[in-house]
Design goal:
The complex is a heterodimer of chains A (162) and B (298). Chain A has five helices and five strands. Chain A has helices at 29-36, 92-99, 109-122, 128-134, 146-161; strands at residues 8-14, 17-23, 55-58, 61-64, 77-79. Chain A has a five-stranded mixed beta sheet, with helices on both faces. In chain A, helix 2 packs across helix 5 (146-161). The mean pLDDT of chain A is 96. Chain B has a five-stranded antiparallel beta sheet. A three-stranded parallel beta sheet of chain B has the order 1-3-2, covered by helices on one side. A three-stranded antiparallel beta sheet of chain B has the order 11-12-13, sandwiched between helices. Chain B starts with 6 loop residues before the first strand and ends in a 12-residue tail after the last helix. Chain B contains twelve helices and 13 strands. Chain B has helices at residues 14-24, 37-42, 78-82, 86-89, 91-97, 103-108, 111-117, 124-130, 148-151, 227-233, 240-252, 264-286, and strands at 7-9, 28-31, 50-53, 63-66, 69-73, 134-139, 142-147, 152-154, 157-158, 165-172, 178-185, 195-203, 209-217. Classes of the chains: A alpha+beta (162), B alpha+beta (298). The structure holds flavin-adenine dinucleotide and FE2/S2 (inorganic) cluster (FES) (2 copies). Flavin-adenine dinucleotide sits between chains B (29-37, 39, 74, 100-101, 105, 109-110, 112-114, 116-117, 119, 122-124, 160, 165-166, 190, 192-193) and A (49-50, 67).
Chain lengths: 162, 298
């Protein structure tokens, strides 16, 4: 075991703003986001990389932030659920989840939104199978998933119609 | 859950990484995608003094095909392999890489990390066994190339020496009239498979089996192989009867643990039927069929 308590400076762009912090190397990215930056929209569900509640976008790809160190994201670009809304307007995905009842307790929702965002960036017109495959790493205890799938389809349509 | 404190280093070359790992000694470990290591550290199953993050080292994350060899850099993520051009010509690469965990884990986890951790439940080892892959390693003594069957020594044990890194995975291009398939069985995407089967075979002009290589994953401390099972099939027409006989021989060599993913008996039963399904796909592919997506974890 190490007696090292040293910290390292990281610079990460979070929701478009560059932030610099001194962190312990063992700090998880999800804790950096929630505790250091007070962006508590990103949730911790299982803390074992199973449930996907902590999903964020790092350099364009959806990842589980409970299984990545903040130092690994140094120099990177992070997007969290707080970055979806623009000028007081909900993102089309958020709007669709609200309208299609894509959430009940809402615990899984930030992760579902970020995984769905990554999907739509890559595939603007996904089939139900594409959606299921892409959300396979996100667990929801409430909805039974059907309305989440409807929400993503509805958002895809809204985004395509611009 | 928090890992024990450790120091963090980020070298820019393989040489610097090896020097660092040598100087720091036994307590130091390489860090790639972290998708095996970080859970291990969080559960305090390991407490390294130093992590050497190798992910920023240039040159280790490309996939190329030259002549008869597919070269996959150790830092290529599972997602990258699944979507690569190489996976278009050998779809079995996509079967395996695209079936590992879920999209989030596949975006970070690397093929080099997978073979180095040698988790008996992981997907790559069984497939790399049947593709006769070679692992290129670089350490303080220089570089060497080791066949995957010698590289993976036991459960969570490889032949990697101190401060030695995996830099590349090499896969020989299968000959004409070859086909492969890899199918895993699991309850949910983010879980490791309870059982898996890898098959690579070549047919002759008469449709008889010219070459065949078989392996079972999650079925023992390392991938299960059986020369006797292969001998039953080699040189013959692959009838259901013969395939069943080979499956019996192969499964008899397996020793899957009874655990949360199922009892040993359950897993062996799954292996028998998975073997027939995997063989059918491999035979059809060897015959020229374009079969996509052998399994979906949703
Ligand atoms: C929720 C979840 C589900 C998963 N499901 C599956 C699954 O279904 N199938 C499956 O196969 N895997 C699964 N995995 C594991 C995943 O595939 C990992 O990516 C992989 O096992 C390790 O790769 P990594 O790059 O993350 O390595 P790391 O976690 O960074 O490292 C793993 C080990 O290898 C060493 N190491 C890493 N790279 C090198 C190198 N180049 N040279 C020498 N040593 C090295 C490290 O020191 C460490 O000891 C899952 C992981 C998670 C979190
Ligand atoms: S909290 Fe990260 S996957 Fe569950
Ligand atoms: S809405 Fe409650 S967990 Fe998904």
């Amino acid at each position: 075991m190490s007696d090292a308590k040293e910290t390292i400076e990281v610079e990460i762009t979070v929701n478009g703003k560059s932030v610099r912090r001194e962190v312990e190397p063992r700090l998880l990215l999800v804790e950096f986001i929630r505790e250091n930056l007070q962006l508590t929209g990103t949730h911790v569900g299982c803390d074992t990389s199973y449930c996907g509640a902590c999903t964020i976008i790092l350099n364009g790809e959806a990842i589980k932030s409970c299984t990545l160190l903040a130092v690994q994201a140094d120099g990177g670009e992070v997007l969290t659920v707080e970055g979806l809304e623009q000028d007081g307007q909900l993102h089309p995905l958020q709007q669709a989840f609200s309208e299609c009842h894509g959430l009940q307790c809402g615990y899984c929702t930030p992760g579902m939104l970020m995984s769905s965002l990554a999907l739509l960036a890559e595939n603007p017109d996904p089939s139900v199978k594409d959606i299921r495959k892409r959300l396979a790493g996100n667990v929801c205890r409430c909805t039974g998933y059907q309305n989440i799938i409807k929400s993503v389809q509805s958002a895809a349509k809204a985004l395509q119609e611009g | 859950m928090y890992p024990q404190p450790f120091r963090y280093h980020r070298p820019n070359s393989v040489k610097d990484a090896i020097t660092l790992l040598t100087e720091l000694g036994e307590g130091a470990k390489p860090l790639a995608g972290g998708q095996s290591l970080i859970p291990i550290l969080k559960m305090r199953m390991d407490e390294p003094s130093d992590l050497v993050d190798i992910t920023r080292i240039p040159g280790l994350n490309s996939i190329s095909t030259d002549n008869d060899l597919i070269r996959i850099g150790a830092l290529c993520t599972h997602a990258q392999v699944a979507m690569s051009e190489a996976a278009l010509t050998i779809p079995v690469l996509r079967d395996c890489a695209g079936g590992i965990a879920d999209p989030q884990v596949r975006s970070l986890g690397t093929i080099g990390g997978s073979v180095s951790v040698a988790d008996p439940s992981s997907d790559w080892p069984a497939l790399l066994f049947v593709l006769d892959a070679k692992i290129v390693c670089q350490g303080p003594e220089g570089s060497r190339t080791v066949g995957i069957r010698d590289f993976i020594v036991d459960s969570y044990t490889t032949c990697l020496g101190d401060a030695e890194l995996v830099t590349e995975i090499q896969i020989p291009q299968p000959p004409a009239n070859s086909g492969g398939a890899y199918i895993g069985f699991k309850k949910a995407a983010p879980a490791y498979p309870a059982a898996s089967v890898a098959i690579q075979l070549t047919l002759d002009d008469a449709g008889k089996c010219k070459e065949i290589s078989l392996a079972l994953g999650s079925a023992g401390p390392k991938p299960i192989i059986s020369a006797d099972a292969e001998a039953i099939l080699k040189g013959n027409k692959l009838t259901e009867e013969l395939l069943k006989q080979a499956a019996e021989k192969l499964v008899a060599e397996s020793s899957p643990p009874s655990d949360a993913r199922g009892s040993a008996e359950f897993k062996q039963e799954i292996l028998r039927s998975l073997f027939l399904k995997t063989a059918a796909t491999a035979i059809n592919r060897a015959g020229g069929s374009n079969i996509d997506g052998t399994h979906d974890y949703v």
